[in-house]
Amino acid sequence: MSKSQQAYNRVRKLASNNNWNIEKQQYFDSLIKELEVKQPTIATLSTAYQHIWGYFKKICTDEEKGKYKQYLSNLKLDNDSLGPYLEHLTDKYDVKYLKKSRIIEEIKKQN
C-alpha cells in the first residue's frame, strides 16, 4: 500500500475467496519483487500511514493524536518521522497484526 495503491488492490483481489494456488503465489511473488524496488510517493505513504493510524486513533492519548497530525502534515520522503512514530505506537499498544506487517518491519530495519 505504501508504494502502490493499484498493487495493493491487485493483492486484495488475488486473496479474495481464500482460493490460493500456485499461479496466484507466482503472481504475488512477482508483484512483491516489483514493489521492492519501487519508491513510495507522499500520497501512497500517507494512505498507508493513515491506514495504520486507524488502529490507534481510538486508544491513543490526545498528545499522541497531536504528534500524529503534526508528523503527517510535515511528511517528507527524505525525512520521515511518522513511520518510526507509528512503529513506536505499534509496540506500545502491542498491535500484533501491525507488528507482522511488512511496512512496520521495514521501518524497524531502517532505525
Q: How would you portray this structure in words?
A:
The protein is an all-alpha fold. The protein has helices spanning 5-15, 22-36, 42-53, 62-73, 82-92, 96-99, 102-110. α1 (5-15) packs antiparallel against α2.
Provide keyphrases for this structure.
111 residues, mainly alpha
Which regions contain 5 or more consecutive residues with pLDDT less than 50? none
How much of the sequence lies in strands comes to under 5%
User: Helix proportion of residues, in percent?
Assistant: 55-70%
Give the oligomeric state of the chains in this entry, treating copies of one chain as homo and distinct chains as hetero: single chain
Per-chain topology:
Blueprint: H1 5-15, H2 22-36, H3 42-53, H4 62-73, H5 82-92, H6 96-99, H7 102-110
Helix pairs in contact: 1-2
Quick overview of this protein structure:
The chain contains seven helices and no strands.
